[in-house]
Amino acid sequence: MTSVLHACAFKDNYIWLIRGQSPDKVAVVDPGDAEPVLAEIHKRHLTPVAILCTHHHADHVGGVENILKHYSFLPVYGPARERIPAVTYRLKHGDHVKLPKLGLEFDVLDVPGHTAGHIAFFGAGMVFCGDTLFSAGCGRLFEGTPEQMHVSLAKFSALPESTEMYCGHEYTEANLRFALAVEPDNADMHAHLQEVQQRRAENLPTLPSTIGLERRINPFLRSGQAAVRLAAEKHCGHPLNSEVEVFAAIRRCKDGFKG
Ligand code: ZN
Ligand code: FE
After folding, report:
1. Per the confidence metrics, is the pTM higher than 0.90?
2. Which of 34, 53, 96, 126 has its CA 20 to 30 A from that of 111?
3. Tell me, what DSSP letter sits at residue 219?
């Protein structure tokens, strides 16, 4: 049934190709570059039926117009609150994306923080989260506050544990090194780092992850844990009074982290 292929772009971007009930049709998620998408589509004899965009950054939408030059009829789904050229359906929280050609439907989640209008697509046991949630990490706060990002990440954390998580970048190994600096005694992080290193040595993606795994290894979903709070307080040198403050402190700490 449903499977997800990928094309690699730039240094570490993933462009996801969601395949539904008919094996030759795909929806393209966050095509920052058209060329690797078109190459994958031709190689596997696929037909794109839709483009989904999570946020306006060029490494996620830069290829949309070039793909449309080849497939002008494609509907393009994107966030209502961001300006992305060629978007035909402008989506906000609670909207549904129906892709009958794939037999798939997605719920739209508003997840501001990395950008102000960032959205995610959740459906069929999968979530496409762009640059909001990464495996063992989260996006930088370019246009949002720590409060907004904390709420957005809580939405992901509340999804079923088995949900497959497809994010926009291969950052997992570096993220885990930071995660282990926060929680040096976290056995799940140590075990996952081993697995991730093996996969990277074979040049395989470390994705999808699952929400269940992220709850155990992602420090940005763990600001309620005593060990994470202690590490954040040590970094700041004063007590922190809420999960948002803990989250904000470890996000700031990560910004300056040299693994
Ligand atoms: Zn981005
Ligand atoms: Fe990105």
Report:
1. yes
2. 34
3. G
* C-alpha of residue 64 to centroid of ligand 1, in Å: 15
pLDDT tens-digit readout, 149-206: 999 999 999 999 999 999 999 999 999 999 999 999 999 999 999 999 999 999 999 9
Catalytic residue among 114, 118, 150, 192: 114
Q: What is the pLDDT of residues 212-258, one digit of tens each?
A: 999 999 999 999 999 999 999 999 999 999 999 999 999 999 998 88
Catalytic annotation present for 60: yes
The answer to whether domain 3-217 has CATH 3.60.15.10 is: yes
Classify residue 11 as exposed, middle or buried by CB count within 10 Å of its CB (0-12, 13-18, 19+): exposed
Query: How far is the centre of ligand 2, averaged over its atoms, from the C-alpha of 234 (Å)?
Result: 30
Ion ligand 2 — residues with CB under 5 Å?
Answer: 59, 131, 168
Say whether 42 is catalytic.
no
Omega within 30 of 0 (cis) for the link into 85: no
Query: Domain-by-domain residue ranges, the chain?
Result: 3-217
